[in-house]
Structure formats: structure tokens, C-alpha cells
Structure to design on (146 residues):
């Protein structure tokens, strides 16, 4: 839901809110794999990428939206912002090991991205489910198809 919040509040892209909300919905079926491990898998095979693409297509079809917009630059930018926020706020060492495993990424802005952080926005599973469903209902009617 943080990706959706950044899209709407920071990037002014309310039209992409549902895409931000569902950009990782494939993980409900394929599993959530940590990015460094996902990068290693992708370096050796495109199977995981193909599975996720097929799941994204099925999810988008069920929602009546365009799966290509899950990869929109603004959705990707919001997702990367959330990754940096989570590493900064939720890992005790500030994510030093993850930073080392993800060379080439610009980590210089970690301290300045969303100073309000994510820790106070962590939800129980039940609260997360209710918030997700509420957000889906709120944005499902305001979605472009291309």
C-alpha cells in the first residue's frame, strides 16, 4: 500500500493507484522472494519472470486493467522508493548486507527519503487485509486501461 500512497500523494498519479496497489499481487501465488535472491534467480533463468508475467496478466484480466501498467515508470519509481524506506527503517543495520548485494543502486538519498518512515505504518495482517480491500474498492473505479 506504500507504493499506492507514494503514487497518489507524492507523484500525483491517482490514475495509477490501483496499479501500485496490485503491482506485486503475483507474489500471493508465486511467493515473495527477497530482491537479492530474485536477482540471482533471474540471472540464471527467466522462468520466475515468465511466471510472474503470466500471473500479472491473469490478475489484470480479472480486474479489467492493462497489465503493462504494473511496469509503468511511476509504479517502478514508487516501488524502489519503498524498498529504500524499508531497508532504512526496518533493518537493524540499515540494510548494509542488502546494499552490498545490490551494487549499482544509488543509496545516497536513503536518509532523506520520506523522513516519516514506514515503521509507524506497519499493520497487523488483519488490518493490512482490511486496508488493502478498502483501498482496492476506492480506486477500482478510477483506472485507465492504457
Amino acid at each position: 500500500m506504500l507504493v499506492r500512497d507514494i503514487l497518489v500523494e507524492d507523484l500525483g498519479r491517482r490514475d495509477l493507484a490501483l496499479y501500485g496497489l496490485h503491482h506485486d499481487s503475483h507474489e500471493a501465488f508465486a511467493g515473495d522472494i527477497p530482491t537479492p535472491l530474485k536477482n540471482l534467480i533471474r540471472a540464471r533463468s527467466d522462468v520466475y519472470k515468465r511466471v510472474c508475467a503470466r500471473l500479472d496478466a491473469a490478475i489484470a484480466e480479472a480486474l479489467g486493467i492493462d497489465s503493462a501498467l504494473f511496469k509503468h515508470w511511476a509504479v517502478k519509481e514508487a516501488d524502489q522508493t519503498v524498498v529504500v524506506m524499508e531497508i532504512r527503517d526496518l533493518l537493524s543495520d540499515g540494510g548494509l548486507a542488502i546494499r552490498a548485494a545490490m551494487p549499482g543502486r544509488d543509496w545516497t538519498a536513503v536518509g532523506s527519503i520520506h523522513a516519516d518512515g514506514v515503521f509507524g505504518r506497519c499493520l497487523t495482517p488483519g488490518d493490512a487485509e482490511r486496508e488493502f480491500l478498502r483501498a482496492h474498492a476506492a480506486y477500482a473505479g478510477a483506472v485507465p486501461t492504457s
User: Anything to note?
Assistant: Residues 29 and 141 are 25 Å apart (CA to CA). The helical segments are 2-10, 17-22, 27-30, 35-44, 47-63, 73-90, 96-101, 125-139.
